[in-house]
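Let us practice reading a record.
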Amino acid sequence: MAIALTFEGNPFSPVTDFRAWYAFDPVKAAKCCSMYAALTPESSESTPSEQDEAREAAIDEICRENVTGYFKKYTE
């Protein structure tokens, strides 16, 4: 299962159709990507499983702190 961060109203998959997802609204997509990148630590010392857990934790944190409901957790 793939997990990603998306935003309200975007009908495209950020996992399988990233270009269309990003083109839907580049300003909102850029904000979504930058927020995700800021909270997702990348380390060559982490296992793939640990990296997946860190990514999901970052997405969960963004969604939890998102009082407007604008950002959404996307699973596929």
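A brief commentary: The mean pLDDT is 92.
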